[in-house]
């Protein structure tokens, strides 16, 4: 199925998805959902052998990152606990007419997921971001067993995969001097501007050591800097989700890009354990000679999001509306970037206390029309071993951004 038809199919058959939540004229749909993740092993014998040997422990697999390109979505499954046979997978979108629980197809192939490797393959992929030229940039932490006994098997790395040919173009290790003791390099954002993606930079967030790493594709250079706005807020480090109280002090995490205008665009960013959004012009952070003496260029965007206002990932659509995961409110928030960042201008694009428990990653694809893709994964329950394998725990969801904001303060027609 061509991707144009696919978009049409997503729009017209969304009524067929089992989980189709409508709140007035807002909607979010579940495309895939799993009680437990399974993989498409080469054979039933290998599947059984992996289960028997502990190479595959379904309860230890959690999906984290999401991306979409044409007729596929990509899902990462970091190796936080033992028994994760592959860490990056693809799922076909064609022919999907109802909510299903397909096995993950390791990507680009099983050969890339042999954890005994010499670091030429994947170790533990966190997140991916696809540029508009069809290259997927993959962030690999290089670390396994983070929730058990962490072992840094390989340096954190950035891999570029050509999605037309499914081949790896290049893999860069993040230089040692930019990875600090206890760094948690968790999120990535590609900033590409011209039609050929020549001026491409990648922004990489270190949530535990409060740093931003910039990668410049033209010469493979990296640089790193820190800023006090990358730190968590103490009171917002105290979370309560469906009765579970936990403390996370995660700093810089969510990043999204505003409109490109006169050679520049803002980077919006926030710490995860925070209710505050900041911005900096990308011309500042793309110039390594400026980052360290531009402290005043990193600015508060506006008002706070209030209690329970913690946000993981965010992205801005073609109409200039930011969508963001409200991880303590089972919701996707929205903000029209043309309006001031005031609490009264922050809307809710989707809310569901069953399917939207801990929306973790969020991306907006490059298709026409665009869709917003969300993965929900109950991460705090996973961390504290409270996942119930009899329930649906993990979901790939999508929403039509134009429809989702209709009638909310995020709609451009609403002033
Ligand atoms: C890593 O291992 C692979 C497969 O065994 C081999 O093809 C490759 O040359 C090795 N790379 C390095 C840098 O040793
Ligand atoms: C953290 O949250 C719990 C549960 O809401 C609350 O009882 C506790 O007082 C909070 N701690 C602080 C320091 O605010
Ligand atoms: C900024 O300053 C820090 C601390 O001195 C240093 O580690 C870092 O490399 C500097 N970054 C750049 C891009 O100059």
3D structure, described in words:
This protein is mostly beta strands and about 425 residues long. It has one domain (about 5-405): 6 Propeller (Neuraminidase). It has 5 helices and 29 strands. The protein has helices at about 5-10, 45-55, 280-285, 380-385, 400-405; strands at about 20-25, 25-35, 65-70, 70-75, 90, 105, 125-130, 135-140, 145, 150, 155-160, 165-175, 185-190, 200-205, 210-215, 220-225, 240, 245, 250-255, 265-270, 280, 300, 310-315, 320-325, 330-335, 345-350, 360-365, 370-375, 395-400. A 5-stranded antiparallel beta sheet has the order 1-2-29-28-27. The chain has a 4-stranded antiparallel beta sheet with strand order 3-4-5-6, with no helix packed on it. The protein is globular, with a radius of gyration of 20 Å. It starts with a helix and ends in a 10-residue tail after the last helix. Mean pLDDT is about 90; it is low at about 1-5 and about 20-25. One 2-acetamido-2-deoxy-beta-D-glucopyranose binds next to loops. This is Protein yellow. One of its GO terms (cellular component) is extracellular region.
Please mark out the parts with pLDDT under 50 across 5 or more consecutive residues, or reply none. 1-5, 20-26
Our estimate of the beta-strand percent is 35-45%
| Overall CATH architecture | 6 Propeller
Count of DSSP strands: 29
Relevant CATH superfamily? TolB, C-terminal domain
Q: What general outline do the C-alpha atoms trace?
A: globular
Radius of gyration: 20 Å
Q: Which ligands, by name, code or SMILES, are bound?
A: 2-acetamido-2-deoxy-beta-D-glucopyranose
């Amino acid at each position: 199925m061509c991707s144009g038809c696919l978009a049409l199919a997503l729009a017209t058959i969304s009524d067929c998805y089992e989980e189709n939540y409508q709140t007035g004229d807002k909607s979010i749909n579940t495309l895939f959902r799993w009680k437990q993740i399974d993989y498409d092993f080469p054979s039933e014998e290998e599947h059984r052998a992996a289960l028997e040997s502990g190479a595959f422990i379904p309860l230890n697999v959690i999906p984290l990152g999401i991306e979409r390109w044409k007729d596929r979505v990509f899902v990462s499954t970091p190796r936080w606990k033992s028994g994760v046979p592959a860490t990056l997978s693809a799922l076909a979108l064609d022919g999907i007419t109802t909510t299903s629980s397909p096995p993950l197809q390791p990507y680009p192939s099983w050969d890339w997921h042999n954890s005994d490797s010499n670091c030429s393959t994947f170790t533990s992929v966190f997140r991916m971001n696809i540029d508009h030229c069809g290259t997927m940039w993959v962030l690999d932490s290089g670390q396994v067993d983070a929730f058990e006994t962490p072992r840094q098997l390989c340096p954190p790395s950035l891999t570029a995969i050509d999605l037309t040919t499914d081949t790896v173009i290049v893999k860069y290790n993040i230089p040692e001097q930019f990875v600090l003791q206890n760094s948690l390099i968790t999120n990535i954002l590609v900033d590409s501007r011209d039609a050929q993606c020549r001026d491409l930079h990648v922004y990489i967030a270190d949530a535990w050591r409060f740093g931003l790493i910039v990668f410049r594709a033209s010469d493979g250079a990296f640089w790193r800097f820190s800023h006090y706005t990358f730190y968590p807020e103490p009171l917002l480090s105290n979370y309560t989700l469906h009765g579970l109280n936990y403390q996370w002090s995660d700093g810089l995490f969510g990043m999204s890009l505003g409109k490109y205008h006169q050679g520049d665009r803002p980077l919006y960013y926030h710490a995860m354990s925070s209710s505050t959004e900041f911005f900096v012009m990308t011309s500042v952070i793309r110039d390594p000679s400026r980052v360290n003496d531009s402290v005043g260029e990193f600015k508060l965007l506006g008002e706070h999001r209030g209690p329970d206002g913690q946000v993981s990932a965010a992205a801005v659509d073609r109409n200039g509306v930011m969508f963001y995961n409200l991880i303590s409110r089972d919701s996707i928030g929205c903000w029209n970037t043309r309006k001031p960042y005031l609490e009264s201008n922050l809307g809710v694009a989707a809310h569901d206390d069953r399917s939207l428990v801990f929306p973790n990653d969020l991306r907006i694809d490059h298709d026409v029309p665009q869709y917003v893709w969300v993965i929900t994964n109950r991460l705090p329950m996973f961390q504290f071993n409270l996942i119930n394998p009899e329930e649906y725990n993990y979901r790939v969801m999508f929403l039509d951004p134009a429809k989702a904001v209709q009638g909310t303060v995020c709609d451009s027609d609403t002033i």
